[in-house]
Structures are given as structure tokens and as C-alpha cells.
Amino acid sequence: MVSRDDVNYSFTDAELDELRAFGVVESHKAGDLIVEEGAMAPDCIITLTGHTDIFASTDDGRKRVGWMEHGQFAGDLSVLTGQRHLSRVEMGADGEIIRIVHADFQRLIAGNSHFSDIFIRVLSARREFSNTRGFAVTIVIGAAMDRSVYALRDLLMKHGVAHRWFDPADGPVAGHLMAERGLTEDQLPAVILGAADVLIRPTPEQLAAGLGLDLLPDGATADVLVVGSGPGGLAAAVYAASEGLTVIALDALAPGGQAGTSSKIENYLGFPTGISGNELARRATVQAQKFGARLVAPVRAASIGRDGEDAYCLHLADGRKLRSRAIVVASGAQYQRLPIEGIEAYEGRGIYYGATPMEAQLCGNAEVTVVGSGNSAGQGAIYLASVAKKVYVIFRRASLRETMSEYLVKRLEEHPNIEIIPSTDVVGLRGEDRLAGLTYRCRETGAENQCDCGFLFLFLGANPNTNWLPKEMVCDDRGFVKTGADIAPLELVRAGWSLDRMPSRYETSWPRIYAIGDVRKGSVKRVASSVGEGSVVVSDIHQALAEITPPVG
């Protein structure tokens, strides 16, 4: 729960005296522009005298949404991350401010524990306040079953960007916004970014650029590149950055990985009442950025090549190249599709691979089917049962207890809205512009049945995301990366291993390239396990980097 004290925190006079050393004191007249709406890498603004006004472009026009008085500071997490600032800060009355430019603010956060705790708590609380209260200046307009709308909203949700969504078929608000911005039906979906921009039929990558989620220059270097920002990758970024290594962490969509799609994780240590995967990812993301790690998404890795004797070059799908002396492969795995021809046509139009509030919003009071027998399937079914009329849990095994935690099995069995259907496969789909029903077959009898369920959630076995790795890197027959003692001596020779020592526990057949989490052969597919591997691998990186001398760049 966000408290008013968190959102409107005021520094004491003694704290303000300390903060003056990190910035510049400026005098302004009422009406002066302090921070422009849409600014990238916005400065931190602390009010000394007078007051500063916060204006935002909403669906009802530009409004003053707040003001900052003596000792209070403007902004939300964009002040930390450097992403687009979606409000305008003006001087509301003659007075003075402290302006801390973005680069100096990041150094303040990394180097001062007292102020870091305050800023992180307040900035995070404001982002949560925006999400829970429905206040947002980012607006998506488009049809519910438009897969482009789903992709855009999925990106915004996973990056924690507060937004509002309007379907033209659901009321007059979308039409009003479209008329105000001169939009027509054939230009949808559209995304309104405050008063700054209107993006017409944007791709997720274009939306990310518009929000400032990807500000990584070509040729950037770091001590460690982390490919994949699931729990393992985020842990590696946090621990490496906190121990003084420069870190760039990438993800093909957003921080969180598969865990980020989980509605509630209840067996993660330290959270007795559970935590959503998205919230866990958001906290870890802020923590990594607090220590100076750069998190960039959506960015897709394309290949790795050697760059001289002691460095590597990571090629991105968009043509950019990054250099590093060490790489952590945490690219995880992705849920398998059902082996049904034409399934792609229904993805984002009734078929989904995660159960989050966004999907739940689409299937309220409807019948839904969950396919899978792991913990993610159980968590998803229980969450969806809170909004759906009926949830069918279908899986090919004879019993859920073979693969699912007991506490989840008991909840599924006892929930009145959930029906468990074992030893069964989904074998057919039907529908025109969206999923309208499915056919399932009993493995024991061969009997087939049909239902008019229009929402299907798939939590099937996962395939490793390793097709971008060099063919010389040793993997098992399923594509999972071998590390440490799992790599046979002959495999090391064939891979060109040149060091006198053997690979460390998470090191691949290429020196200083490590694999952790779900992508690694033999890993335990649990959030806690991935986090543990991400933290432990940093000590191996330190030892390996000590073997070579000059840093990259």
C-alpha cells in the first residue's frame, strides 16, 4: 500500500544543505519552465522556496496534477532510469530550486545510502500510485483482440509504464481522443505519449524508443554484458554492479522473463504472502539501476564473436555491436506452442503465454482453459479463477502431483471455479478473427470433446533460447548450454578452449562466457535457483577478469 507520506516526502533543512552539494541552486519566476514534458534523462528538481507545479496531458486535456513545496522533489522513476519524463514541471511561484542533473543524480543514488533509500522509496511509490489509481498520460487506443494492441500493452505492463487503454467499441472516450488528435480508424492502434508524441501503428520497438527504454549507443562497452533480464540475469546485474563492475543487461522484451508473467509467487523466500513476478522484476530492476547497471529492452541478441584475444563482441539484431570481457547468458527458455497447425493466428487473440492483470482484464466472467501441470500453470489457473466464470486445467499427465507443488494442487482441487482434466491434450482450435473454441482428446480412451472456450493459456514445457549462440558453444541435444564439469574434455578441445584451467561451475566452453538459469543444462527451474546462480556467478567473473589485464575500450 502506498502512503501519502511516501508520495509527498519532504527533506529536512539539514538534508537540503547536504543535497546542495550535488546540484545547483537556481532562482526562477512563476511560469518558468523547469523540466519539459517528454524530456529524456530528466533532472531531479527539489523545491527550496515558492512552489513547483506538475502538469500532465490526460485524456481530459492538460491538467495540474500536483505541486511540490519546500523540501519536496518532482518526478517518478524516470528520474532514475533516464526514460521519457511524461509530465511538465513549471515554477508555480517565484522561488528557488536545487537542480541535480541526471548523471550527478545517478552518482548520488549509487554513493549515498541515506538519500538513495529516500529517493528509491518515493520514486517507486509514485510509480505504484500511478498504476493503482489509473493515472497515466500514456494512452493506448485499439481493439481488444488486436494482437498489436496486446503486444504494446504487454510491453508497457512489463516495463511498469502506467497507461490507460481504450477500445473504440467500448464507449465514446476513444472517439473523443481520436478526434482531438486527428486519428482515424485505419491508423489504429495508436499510442499517445502525453502532449509529446502520437505513435501510429507502432511496433513494440518503436514504442520503446518513444519512451526512452532503449538509449544504448552502438559500440557501448562494459565489464559484463548480461543477455536476458529474468531473475537470474537481474541478480547477476545487481551483484556485479554493486561490486564495482560496469554492467549492461539486455532483454528481448522486458525485465522479468517467464517469472514476470506469474500472477503470484508464494514460495520465494522472504515473501510469506507472495509477490507477483512483475513486481519482483520491477524491484530488482530498480535495485540494479540504483547500483549503476544499464538495463535495456526490447533488444535482441543475434550472435557472439571474438574481439581480439580477451574480449567479445555481442551483435544485436538491429546491427549494433557491444564489447565486453565477460558475458552472462541468461536468455532463459520460452513456453512451447501446441503442435496444432495455424496456432499463430490466435496468439494475442485468445491464446496467451502468461496470466497477468492485462490478460485477466480481457477474460472477465468468461470460460478459460489452462494447459500445463507445472507451478506456473497452477498459479495462473488460481489467479484467473478470481475473474473468470470457469477455469479448465488440462494436462497430459495422470496426476498434477508429479510436477506441481502440493500447496497449489490442493488449491486447485478445492477451488469451486476450477475443473481438473488429466490425461488430456488440446488437439484442435477454431475461430475466425479470434479463438472461439477448442477440441480436446482423452489420452486413455481417445474420446474427443469440444467446448466454446475463447481463452487458452499455455504453460507447456520450455525450449531454451540458445539459437543465437555460436555453434561451437557446447550444448546438449535439447539445446541447453553445458557449463563447468558437464563439458567433456573432448568437447572443450573442439570448442577451442585455450586456458590452462578448466571451466568454472557456470562457465561455458568459451572462456568468460557464463550460462545461468533456465538456459543452462541441469538447472533447477525455480526463481530462487536462478537468482542464486546469478549472484554466485559474479565471483567467478571477478576471478576470470583478474586473469586478463586491461579493460575493454
Task: Please outline the helices and strands.
Elements: H1 4-7, H2 13-19, E1 24-28, E2 33-35, E3 44-47, E4 51-58, E5 61-68, H3 78-81, E6 88-93, E7 95-100, H4 102-111, H5 113-133, E8 138-141, H6 147-158, E9 163-166, H7 172-181, E10 190-193, E11 197-200, H8 204-211, E12 221-227, H9 231-242, E13 247-250, H10 277-290, E14 294-296, E15 301-306, E16 312-316, E17 321-329, E18 333-335, E19 351-352, H11 357-362, E20 367-371, H12 375-385, E21 390-394, H13 406-414, E22 418-421, E23 424-430, E24 437-442, E25 448-451, E26 455-458, E27 462-464, H14 489-495, E28 513-515, H15 527-545
Parallel strand pairs: 8-9, 12-13, 12-17, 13-14, 17-28, 19-26, 20-21, 20-26, 21-22
Antiparallel strand pairs: 1-7, 2-6, 3-7, 4-5, 4-6, 8-10, 10-11, 15-16, 16-17, 18-27, 23-24, 24-25
3D architecture notes:
The protein has 553 residues and is an alpha/beta fold. It has four domains: 4-133, Sandwich (Jelly Rolls), CATH 2.60.120.10; 138-211, 3-Layer(aba) Sandwich (Glutaredoxin); 221-333 and 512-545, FAD/NAD(P)-binding domain (3-Layer(bba) Sandwich), CATH 3.50.50; 343-460, FAD/NAD(P)-binding domain. Helices cover 28% and strands 25% of the residues. The strands form seven sheets. Strands 12, 13, 14, 15, 16, 17 and 28 form a seven-stranded mixed β-sheet that branches. Strands 19-26-20-21-22 form a five-stranded parallel β-sheet. The chain has a four-stranded antiparallel β-sheet with strand order 2-6-4-5, with no helix packed on it. β8, α6 and β9 (163-166) form a beta-alpha-beta unit. The chain is globular. The relative contact order is 0.10. The mean pLDDT is 90.
